[in-house]
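User: I'm writing a tutorial on reading structure tokens. Could you give me a worked example: one chain, its sequence, then its tokens, then a sentence or two explaining what the tokens reveal?
Assistant: Sure. Here is the example chain.
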Amino acid sequence: MKYIMTENGFESALDFGTLTISSDETKGFRPYQLLVSSLVGCSGGVLRKVCEKMRMPVEEMEIDVLEVIRNPEEASRLEKVHIHFKLKGSNLNSTKMERGDDSYEEKLFNGSFC
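And here are its predicted structure tokens:
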């Protein structure tokens, strides 16, 4: 991927269109929005694959970002992202999900799926 500096931030020509990144959200996506979106996309994909391996196919998944805490004293560094998953499926089992939680976290944090 290649990013070019523009008057308002940076742009990249990608397969699905031009990605515009800007600190001004009227001009493009803010960097923290893209980072949070990456976390959501990766963690949602990992959760889906873990459920499939546990023979609990997910028919629908809704992901809400409930809280994003940034530290203005550290260049607005993200310190906390609270992500809430809502799953629908005919074979979902909460007990099995709790046991699969360790597998999910291991795969998510070692980057084996993302």
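What the tokens reveal: The longest helix spans residues 31-53. Residues 48 and 58 are 6 Å apart (CA to CA).
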